[in-house]
Design a protein that fits this description.
The protein has 5 helices and 13 strands. The protein has about 210 residues and is of the alpha+beta class. It has a single domain, classed as Jelly Rolls (Sandwich), CATH 2.60.120.10.
Length: about 210
């Protein structure tokens, strides 16, 4: 499985190196993430233990992704022989405990580069965000700068003073501690994320 995660990282790097970007800031973030993917080293004896089975959400997203601009990444994901390390990393929100439980079933993150991930690269955390159809990922933030690449599914991205639909193949850049939220519609969302800057503190709901 180690070779497969390395192949996935190389597929991600190849896409990032040729994908068109909308701004210089996005281009710089994409270069940083591509470099991390190229230089990532395998963490020996890593065992993938997902918290939940998200295949029912992931399978249609992978199928859709094969027909979109980041098809190479979707194909590399589909070829993995085992599951990704899916997690839902937010603590329950006391005022919305029932909703929080539902979100844990509908939103998941699989880190592939990070301190507890199959790959390691300095100054970077990276992985995948998976969101079920008709799901609202509430406003949240983190000190890290975050680059998103949508692989499958169209989602509505909301940041202070701005809101837009982001289709497959497009990038979204979040500044450090910038609040943001996402909403899916009829399709699941599968997106690549990469963190740079202050990557140690976790994300938190606002």
């Amino acid at each position: 499985m180690e070779t497969d995660f390395s192949d996935l990282a190389l597929a991600i790097a190849a896409h990032l190196e040729r994908a068109p970007t909308q701004t210089d800031d996005i281009a710089a973030a994409a270069r940083h993430l591509a470099h991390a993917m190229r230089c990532a080293t395998v963490r020996e004896s890593f065992v993938v233990v997902p918290n939940r089975d998200h295949w029912a959400i992931l399978a249609p997203a992978l199928d859709a992704g094969l027909a979109h601009p980041a098809a190479g990444i979707a194909a590399a994901l589909a070829e993995l022989p085992g599951p990704l390390p899916w997690r839902y990393s937010y603590p329950p929100r006391p005022a919305e405990s029932a909703d929080a439980v539902d979100l844990a079933e509908r939103i998941a993150f699989a880190e592939i580069i990070g301190p507890r991930a199959p790959l390691d690269a300095p100054g970077c955390r990276a992985g995948f965000t998976l969101i079920a159809p008709a799901t609202f990922y509430p406003p949240h933030a983190h000190p890290a700068v975050e680059l998103y690449l949508v692989i499958a599914g169209q989602a509505q991205w909301t940041t202070p003073g701005a809101e837009r639909l982001v289709p497959p193949g497009d990038f979204v850049l979040h500044r450090a501690s910038q609040p943001h939220a996402m909403r899916t519609f009829a399709e699941p969302l599968l997106a690549l994320y990469g963190w740079s800057g202050d990557i140690d503190p976790p994300a938190y709901y606002l």
